[in-house]
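User: Run a structure prediction on this.
Assistant: Running it now.
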Amino acid sequence: MNTVSYLPQGASSLTRASTPTMIKIYALGPFSLVVDGQPLTFARKAKSKPLELLKALIAHGGQHVRQDTLAEALWPDSEADLAAYSLTSTLHRLRMLIGASTIQRQAGCLSLDSSRCWVDAWSFERKLAALERAHRAQDLDAMAGLTASSVLQYRGPFLAGDADDAWILCTRERLQSRLLNLLDSIGTAHALARRYEQAFACFKKAVEIDPFAEGPYRRLMQMNLEQGRHADVLLTYQHCRNVLAAGLGCAPSVETEALLRKVRAG
C-alpha cells in the first residue's frame, strides 16, 4: 500500500492546520491526493493509517459513516475500546494532513465536507446515474457523450493496488459491475440502431475492463458476423480463447463456440 508524507511540498504544518483546504481525491486506479492544487508527495517511511481511514471513509460513502464501522474495517482484530482509541488518534493525524474541518465528527459518525472535497469515484457514480437516465430515455446521443466521459474518468478499479480488504473489494466490484452492465446495455442499444462505431467502442471497453467475461466478445463477434466481417469474428474469437487459456486455463463457452461455427459454416 502506498504511504505518504503529511504535507505537500512547500507547505507548513501551521498552514495545513489553520487554512481551509480544497482537496481532490483520486480513488479510481492508483490512489492520489491533490491538496490546494499540489499533489501530496509519497514517502516510503511515512505511516499509512490516516490514508487508510480516508479510503475507508470514501468506500463507505463519505457521509454519516459510523465510527464503529470504520474501526471494524481498519482494526478488525482489536478490542472495541482499543479500536475506538486508534480511530480517534488516526483521525487527528488525517485532519493534520487534509485540514481540521474537512472531516466532520458528529453523533458517532464521520463525514467528508463535500464543499471542500471532490472525489473522482463519487463524480463517476453521478455520471453513471446520468447515463442510466439517458438509457431509459433512449437518448442515443446523450448516451454516447456520457459513455465517453465515464470511461475516461474510470482510470481503473477502485483503489487499484491496495490490499484486497472486504470493504475495498465491495466498492471495487460494485463500481465495475455497474459500468460493465451499462456498457452492455448501451452498446446493445447502439447496435440495434446500427450505430456500430459507438457499439464497438462500448464492447471493446468492456473487454478491456474485464477480459475474462465472454459476453462482450460475443457481442463483437455477432456484430462483425452481421456485417460480413468473418476475419474479424475469427480474430475476436482467437483473442478470447487466448485470454481465457492464459488467465483461467479454460476454453470458450458453448455459446461462443456456436458463433464461431456460424462463420465456418458460411
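Confidence is low (pLDDT under 50) at residues 1-18.
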